[in-house]
Write a structure and sequence with these properties.
alpha+beta, 444 residues, binds FE2/S2 (inorganic) cluster, 15 helices
Length: 444
Amino acid sequence: MTGFAVEDLRGLVEPARVYRDVYASPDVFALEMERIWGRAWLYVGHQSQVPGPGDFITTTLGLKPVIMVRHTDGETIHVLHNRCGHRGAIVCYQRHGHARSGLFRCPYHGWIFRSDGSLRTLPSPGGYKNVGFDADDPAFGMPPVARTDTYRGFVFASLSAEGPGLVEFLGEAAATIDNMVDRSPVGEIEVTGKVGHRFRHRNNWKFFIENLHDAMHPMVAHAATGDAVKQVLDKYPDSELGRAEAEVIAPFGGSYDFFDEMGFVGLPRGHGYMGGSKSIFSHYRQFPDYLAAMEESYGKARTEEILSYNKHNTLVYPSCTVRDGIQSIRVVKPVSVNETVIESWTFRLKGAPQSMLDRTLRYSRLINSPASCVGPDDMSCYDRIQEAAEAGTIDWIDLHRHLGRDVQDGERVTAIGTSDLALRNQYTAWVDYMTSDTGVQHGG
Ligand code: FES
């Protein structure tokens, strides 16, 4: 399919199926980068990654390289296009670091930029006098992205000046971020480590976010892992050895009923989550010293309220998925139509004992890392669909399950956990983004 008019794009998505071009067409991917990733609020990083003036990280928003840097005023966090205003060279390839005096120097001809992106100096400036060059023109700097905002320490940016503000964009999904932060006895969290797990997938970016709420796959795709854990627990019922690991993995061998009861909640703009009162985290053991610290800070009732709020993966469409109960976030980095990097970051609950961070790191190692027991199962399945979509061995990818049984509740739409509603909700937003001329994303 070539030449995507609006009606062409609408034709790729039907209520119960999507056409293979959605995963396999480079033209569709290019439009997604422009119309979805070029408009939505995208997760950039956490403020704790740039604690002091001049501290920075580099990342991408869609395909655009950016730098998130703490300005020399010590307060403002800027997200700048990581490109030189002279001839466009990427200024900084380091993943993280500290810019001395808050200055970035392009390695090609030595133009120097301040931490707000403005051009500070360039070598032999006489060559630019009386030639129509304006050093104050932001185009000759490292321009800030169109919009940057922070929600409880989580920095988001949008490449578009148009569209809803960050709080409106997040909507109910913000409650998951609130809960993650509230789980700290002092109400603060920080990123652990300088780099996240990077997991390179040879498939389209949408497979990962679709799979998060595809509750029909764990009993099959993760069966071998779930069975092995059950055997260990049966064979060594009294041993603590491996029990903590088993606690993490066992729910991935859950039943269809278990996931149905978790339920799915679809939100506007493609966001959504599974669980709420019940999730695969709701039966984790609690650590007495952590509970004591929480109750001292919040009191017993509020502590129970915070810790009983359990969601399994809240998707902030399209760029990240948040797990409040386990304090981790996964960030989606599209590379091409059939290549994606998933970064997984973990957070420390300030004021909480080390046992809580150990649990977070254990989860990340066992579930999210490229060498985990679960993630590679999923990736193998995405690869198979990608190959089929590219080869044309299937034209339409099916989304029929429990179609027509959704329950609309204001802005939310809900269904049992094994419904395909989660995917359909994402495609409602996909069509809105892809066919809208205004960039006003209603979704849901
Ligand atoms: Fe950066 Fe020339 S390309 S200074």
